[in-house]
Protein backbone atom coordinates (compact mmCIF):
# COMPACT_ATOMS: atom_id res chain seq x y z
CA UNK A 1 0.00 0.00 0.00
CA UNK A 2 1.39 3.39 -0.92
CA UNK A 3 1.58 6.36 1.45
CA UNK A 4 -1.18 8.31 -0.29
CA UNK A 5 -3.66 5.42 -0.01
CA UNK A 6 -2.79 4.93 3.65
CA UNK A 7 -3.22 8.63 4.40
CA UNK A 8 -6.55 8.78 2.57
CA UNK A 9 -7.76 5.86 4.67
CA UNK A 10 -6.66 7.61 7.87
CA UNK A 11 -8.23 10.86 6.71
CA UNK A 12 -11.64 9.29 6.03
CA UNK A 13 -11.47 7.37 9.33
CA UNK A 14 -11.17 10.67 11.16
CA UNK A 15 -14.18 12.24 9.46
CA UNK A 16 -16.80 9.93 8.07
CA UNK A 17 -15.80 6.26 7.96
CA UNK A 18 -15.78 4.22 11.16
CA UNK A 19 -12.61 2.29 11.88
CA UNK A 20 -11.11 1.59 15.32
CA UNK A 21 -12.72 4.77 16.56
CA UNK A 22 -15.88 6.59 15.48
CA UNK A 23 -15.52 9.33 12.86
CA UNK A 24 -15.93 12.91 14.05
CA UNK A 25 -18.82 13.73 11.72
CA UNK A 26 -20.86 10.96 13.36
CA UNK A 27 -19.69 11.83 16.87
CA UNK A 28 -20.83 15.46 16.50
CA UNK A 29 -24.04 14.69 14.64
CA UNK A 30 -26.49 15.05 17.53
CA UNK A 31 -24.42 17.12 19.97
CA UNK A 32 -26.49 20.08 21.15
CA UNK A 33 -25.14 23.51 21.98
CA UNK A 34 -25.44 22.74 25.68
CA UNK A 35 -23.56 19.46 25.30
CA UNK A 36 -20.93 21.12 23.10
CA UNK A 37 -20.13 23.74 25.76
CA UNK A 38 -20.40 21.48 28.82
CA UNK A 39 -17.32 20.91 31.00
CA UNK A 40 -17.09 18.34 33.79
CA UNK A 41 -15.09 20.69 36.02
CA UNK A 42 -13.71 24.17 36.03
CA UNK A 43 -10.11 24.44 35.02
CA UNK A 44 -8.14 22.90 32.23
CA UNK A 45 -10.73 20.51 30.77
CA UNK A 46 -11.90 21.66 27.36
CA UNK A 47 -15.45 21.36 26.07
CA UNK A 48 -16.38 19.50 22.90
CA UNK A 49 -16.76 22.78 21.02
CA UNK A 50 -13.39 24.04 22.23
CA UNK A 51 -11.77 20.84 20.98
CA UNK A 52 -13.44 21.21 17.58
CA UNK A 53 -12.17 24.82 17.38
CA UNK A 54 -8.67 23.56 18.21
CA UNK A 55 -8.81 20.89 15.50
CA UNK A 56 -10.19 23.40 13.00
CA UNK A 57 -7.42 25.90 13.74
CA UNK A 58 -4.67 23.48 12.77
CA UNK A 59 -6.50 22.20 9.70
CA UNK A 60 -7.21 25.73 8.46
CA UNK A 61 -3.61 26.74 9.07
CA UNK A 62 -2.34 23.78 7.03
CA UNK A 63 -4.75 24.56 4.19
CA UNK A 64 -3.62 28.20 4.09
CA UNK A 65 0.02 27.12 4.13
CA UNK A 66 -0.52 24.59 1.38
CA UNK A 67 -2.29 27.18 -0.78
CA UNK A 68 0.61 29.53 -0.01
CA UNK A 69 -1.72 32.25 1.28
CA UNK A 70 0.67 33.40 3.99
CA UNK A 71 -1.15 36.72 4.40
CA UNK A 72 -4.16 34.72 5.68
CA UNK A 73 -2.19 32.38 7.93
CA UNK A 74 -3.83 31.82 11.29
CA UNK A 75 -1.91 32.91 14.34
CA UNK A 76 -2.33 32.04 18.00
CA UNK A 77 -0.37 33.32 20.98
CA UNK A 78 -0.03 29.72 22.15
CA UNK A 79 -1.74 26.34 21.87
CA UNK A 80 -4.33 27.26 24.53
CA UNK A 81 -5.54 30.11 22.32
CA UNK A 82 -6.56 27.61 19.63
CA UNK A 83 -9.37 26.37 21.90
CA UNK A 84 -11.14 29.77 21.99
CA UNK A 85 -14.81 29.83 21.14
CA UNK A 86 -16.81 32.31 19.12
CA UNK A 87 -19.95 33.77 20.71
CA UNK A 88 -21.97 30.94 22.22
CA UNK A 89 -24.94 30.62 19.87
CA UNK A 90 -26.52 27.65 18.18
CA UNK A 91 -25.76 29.22 14.80
CA UNK A 92 -22.06 29.58 15.64
CA UNK A 93 -21.93 25.96 16.85
CA UNK A 94 -23.45 24.81 13.54
CA UNK A 95 -21.07 27.03 11.56
CA UNK A 96 -18.04 25.70 13.44
CA UNK A 97 -19.04 22.13 12.59
CA UNK A 98 -19.75 23.03 8.96
CA UNK A 99 -16.43 24.85 8.59
CA UNK A 100 -14.59 21.91 10.15
CA UNK A 101 -16.19 19.48 7.68
CA UNK A 102 -15.46 21.81 4.76
CA UNK A 103 -11.77 22.32 5.61
CA UNK A 104 -11.25 18.61 6.30
CA UNK A 105 -12.77 17.74 2.92
CA UNK A 106 -10.71 20.40 1.13
CA UNK A 107 -7.54 18.88 2.54
CA UNK A 108 -8.82 15.44 1.54
CA UNK A 109 -9.30 16.68 -2.06
CA UNK A 110 -5.75 18.01 -2.08
CA UNK A 111 -4.46 14.68 -0.81
CA UNK A 112 -6.51 12.69 -3.33
CA UNK A 113 -5.16 14.60 -6.32
CA UNK A 114 -1.57 14.84 -5.05
CA UNK A 115 1.29 13.14 -6.79
CA UNK A 116 4.24 11.95 -4.72
CA UNK A 117 6.17 15.17 -5.43
CA UNK A 118 3.21 17.16 -4.04
CA UNK A 119 3.23 15.05 -0.89
CA UNK A 120 6.96 15.66 -0.52
CA UNK A 121 6.50 19.44 -0.85
CA UNK A 122 7.42 21.44 2.24
CA UNK A 123 4.52 23.32 3.78
CA UNK A 124 6.18 24.37 7.01
CA UNK A 125 9.89 24.61 7.46
CA UNK A 126 11.19 21.09 6.98
CA UNK A 127 7.75 19.46 7.31
CA UNK A 128 6.26 17.99 4.15
CA UNK A 129 2.58 17.78 3.27
CA UNK A 130 2.59 14.04 3.91
CA UNK A 131 4.02 14.51 7.42
CA UNK A 132 1.59 17.32 8.22
CA UNK A 133 -1.43 15.29 7.08
CA UNK A 134 -0.25 12.23 9.01
CA UNK A 135 0.25 14.29 12.16
CA UNK A 136 -3.14 15.96 11.85
CA UNK A 137 -4.87 12.59 11.36
CA UNK A 138 -3.23 11.29 14.56
CA UNK A 139 -4.10 14.54 16.34
CA UNK A 140 -7.73 14.17 15.24
CA UNK A 141 -7.91 10.57 16.49
CA UNK A 142 -6.58 11.63 19.89
CA UNK A 143 -9.11 14.45 20.27
CA UNK A 144 -12.00 12.38 18.89
CA UNK A 145 -11.37 10.07 21.85
CA UNK A 146 -11.67 13.04 24.20
CA UNK A 147 -14.92 14.13 22.56
CA UNK A 148 -16.35 10.61 22.88
CA UNK A 149 -15.33 10.56 26.55
CA UNK A 150 -16.99 13.94 27.17
CA UNK A 151 -20.14 12.61 25.47
CA UNK A 152 -20.09 9.54 27.70
CA UNK A 153 -19.63 11.71 30.79
CA UNK A 154 -22.78 13.60 29.79
CA UNK A 155 -24.61 10.31 29.17
CA UNK A 156 -25.34 11.28 25.55
CA UNK A 157 -23.14 8.72 23.82
CA UNK A 158 -25.34 6.48 21.64
CA UNK A 159 -23.27 3.43 22.59
CA UNK A 160 -23.57 1.35 19.42
CA UNK A 161 -20.36 1.41 17.46
CA UNK A 162 -18.36 -1.29 15.75
CA UNK A 163 -15.09 -0.44 17.50
TrEMBL record:
Domain DinB-like: start-end pairs: 24-147
One Pfam match, given by its short name, reads DinB_2
Tell me the Gene3D superfamilies matching this sequence.
dinb family like domain (1.20.120.450)
**Looking at the record's lineage, which domain of life comes first?**
Bacteria
Family annotation (SUPFAM superfamilies): DinB/YfiT-like putative metalloenzymes (SSF109854)
Q: What's the protein called, per UniProt?
A: DinB superfamily protein
Q: Which organism is it from?
A: Lysinibacillus fusiformis
Amino acid sequence: MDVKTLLLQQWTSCLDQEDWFPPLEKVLEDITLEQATWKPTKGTTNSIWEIVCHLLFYKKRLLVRYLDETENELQAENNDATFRLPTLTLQNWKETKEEYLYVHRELEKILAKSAQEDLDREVRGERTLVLELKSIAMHDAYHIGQIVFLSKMQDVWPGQHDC
